[in-house]
Amino acid sequence: MNKFFIIFLIFLSTLWSNSISLENCKKKSLSFSEIPKKYYVTIFQKGPFDKLPHHYTGISLKNFQKLIGNSNKITFIAYDEYKVTFNKNEINKPYIFFVFLKDSKPIPLSQRGPAQIIYTKKDKKRNYFFKSVFLIKKAVCEK
Fold it and tell me: Span 3-142: which CATH code?
């Protein structure tokens, strides 16, 4: 395979892993570098897959909603087309987060990035496995 083609693919995967597309929102995409640092929250907890403690950085769903446009529901779609929808009540919960950094680094696709929905331990037992989504590629705003 051509060396430049491989470099180009690596470059594209870097772009994909630093943003998600948006549908029916006030923007067409959200680059993680656009997210104001004042919204950042860092959560220290065990990863859902490797069971090792990590620092996850992201924003609350409420602040995510502010950035992409107010809507009554947000549906997150993963690369495998798995979908999870959060209603207005869930969006306002203080323990559900849209995260895009793991241990201060972008989450690669190989670690179920570029973005994930995680819960703090406060509500982990009740909702974690039912409303979790990883490998997020798109968010859809619904009125």
Answer: 3.90.420.10
Confidence of residue 42 (pLDDT cuts 50, 70, 90): very high
What is the DSSP code string of 2-24? -HHHHHHHHHHHHHHTTEEEEES
Helix (H, G, I), strand (E, B) or coil at 95: coil
CB count within 10 Å of CB 14 equals 12
Omega of the bond leading into 106 within 30 degrees of 0 (cis): no
Element holding 117 (H helix, E strand) = strand 116-119
5 vs 8: CA distance, rounded Å: 5
Task: Collapse the DSSP code of 91 into the 3-class scheme (helix H, G, I; strand E, B; otherwise coil) and give the result.
Answer: helix
Assess contact for 76 and 62: CB atoms under 8 A: no
Cα distance between the two ends of the chain: 47
- Give the position of tokens 């029916």: 24
Helix (H) or strand (E) holding 90: helix 88-91
The helix/strand/coil state of 42 is strand
Full-model pTM: 0.83
Q: Hey, where are the domains in the chain?
A: 3-142
20 strand-pairing partners: 30
